């Protein structure tokens, strides 16, 4: 195994639990390594630090592995997956069959995630270093978790490559087992949601928000709820099931809101008793204000960055503008619920964005601050893994 020297700063963060080696003047002196090759990281005294898997063309040139394996075999991967299962005992999954089984760096398998959707698994590779070990990954996943089928979800940069090769960017690859139905139903905390494992950049449900949906449901009984950037309506369904008197879901995508209606029906909630609006969020907020509408709870969980024909939204700056537009619609004593999955925005910065949006003399008091659910564990030395911000405020 080749020895690769890292500098004192990289050594320091490795010892603190951070798994990444970022390209610098030390890594440029490494011997030639192949994509996916295992190397021994050493310090300037040539003392071994850790075994890492290499991705030499990437900004993150290597990722540390636990246990200093000599090679990546299906047997070694099975041991890692068993450790993941043990850690999931702390995940408080409830009546759910949709959750994360392997959380990359948080489970000492950097660059690899595996999500369970009922009887199927969705594998994602965030570095091409793991491509050489696809067969080992599939064999280990099959032996440990016994799914009906295993899919590989292509990351955005991979879909662009497929598109350039005139292949459909909408199709995930079935690696093993039987294909899932086009419309497949999974369960989260006893509620049913429609997902599509074969097509699309997103399956239709984000399991990292499960714990936050629980928090919301404990507060919204009897409320008029407005869900902005509603996507396929998971928060809307949870709110309606918890007794919200009326849920208004707004999203620019007619396709997503059609799925939201189906999710309402799957949970025996009449969608006609609620409201679904296809439109740009800022344009709809302006209409609501003109109409004098008020809500007891306003929730927004936008994508980190999105563009429509009418407007653009980005977490930086966009959050404060959104808050200033929606506050006139929020009743006194009502709940403002904001969320962001933008990895580069810290919780402190996100709180500042929320505060900057308060320009009418109102006060927002936080009553709950959360992140991703417990099946998305994160090492204390890896702050990048704590990407999700979820804040419930009371307007006073």
Note the main attributes of this structure.
five-stranded mixed beta sheet; 396 residues; 10 helices; Rossmann fold; 27% helix; alpha/beta; 29% strand
Molecular structure report:
The chain is of the alpha/beta class. The chain has three domains: 3-65, Roll (Archaeosine Trna-guanine Transglycosylase, Chain: A, domain 4), CATH 2.30.130; 74-183, 2-Layer Sandwich (Transcription Regulator spoIIAA); 206-395, Vaccinia Virus protein VP39 (Rossmann fold, 3-Layer(aba) Sandwich), CATH 3.40.50. 27% of the residues lie in helices and 29% in strands. It has ten helices and 21 strands. The protein has a seven-stranded mixed sheet with strand order 15-14-13-16-19-21-20, sandwiched between helices. The protein has a five-stranded mixed sheet with strand order 1-3-4-5-2. It is globular. Mean pLDDT is 92; it is low at 305-316.
What topology does this entry show?
Layout lengths: L2 E3 L2 H8 L4 E3 L15 E5 L5 E7 L5 E6 L8 H14 L10 E6 L8 E6 L2 E6 L8 H12 L3 E5 L2 H9 L8 E5 L6 E5 L2 E5 L14 H8 L6 E5 L5 H8 L4 E6 L2 H13 L8 E4 L2 H11 L3 E6 L4 E3 L4 E3 H12 L3 E11 L6 H10 L7 E7 L18 E7 L1
Parallel strand pairs: 1-3, 8-9, 13-14, 13-16, 14-15, 16-19
Antiparallel strand pairs: 2-5, 3-4, 4-5, 6-7, 7-8, 9-10, 11-12, 17-18, 19-21, 20-21
Helix pairs in contact: 2-3, 5-6, 9-10
